[in-house]
Amino acid sequence: MVTGLLLMAGFVLLLAAVVIGAVMVAEAFGKQIIAEEIVLYSLPEALDGFRILFISDIHRRTLPAAMLSSLGHVDAVFLGGDLTERNSPLERLRMNMKLVTSIAPTYAVHGNHDYRADIGKVDDIIHSSGAVLLRDRNTVIEHGGGQLWLTGVDFPATGGKKGYAPLPPLPPGSEGSCRIILVHDPLWLSERGPQPANLILAGHTHGGQVVLPFIGHGHVDNFYRTYNAGWYEWPQVGAAGARAQLLISRGFGTAHLPLRWGSPAEMHVLTLRCPQD
Description:
Organism: Paenibacillus donghaensis
Domain Calcineurin-like phosphoesterase: 50-207
Order of helices and strands: HEEHEHEHHEEEEEHEEE
Pfam family, one: Metallophos
Largest sheet: 6 strands, mixed
Radius of gyration: 20 Å
GO molecular function: UDP-2,3-diacylglucosamine hydrolase activity
CATH architecture: 4-Layer Sandwich
Protein name: Calcineurin-like phosphoesterase domain-containing protein
Strand order of the largest sheet: 1-12-2-3-4-5
């Protein structure tokens, strides 16, 4: 009798482990696209309706060509770093870059895992795809007679997570323009005050990747316990009380093991909007 109960309990535990494992793999290889409209108060009217495909932390995954090709019109693609990782086939990165650059003009920043790969070959693939790699520099995006500024913050190749270069200033006469900052790791903000930007896009956290009931995510740095995944506000340079919008993506790929729990894979389509009178 006791042996039978133990065997039954073991079977139930094994079945539960299999089910949980299947759910974790399914979340890791999910293809969720989150579409949202974002109001930016300094956005020129000409850019009202400007659509951005934002993807972060691809790692070893192959981007879904059919899904991305069916999105409709996209004006720009922003890649938030970790486009690949060590020992991931470079041909996969080449295919992913070919796909996104076929959708719209593409802008990218490095993540920490990009530097752990063969960064010279990684950058060659990015450049040859036609994408713009922003290493601590600004670029202007013009659309319909209006413009916005995009600033790419490069992950430190040396010096650890806090060895960042200063944020590049906009050219004289561009102060007060609509500006987006693209940075891989939101921890970049942890030692910085108000930012001269309207929107900040980041990734890196994977939303914790495995978020356990009653325990939560396993981030060590306290900053991530507050700024984990989703939408936040950050003090903005300018008028008193002004706030920049901050989006931290859970990312499309996974770090280390291809498993997720409570933090499904995602990418984003952001439609920029002017405020309504």
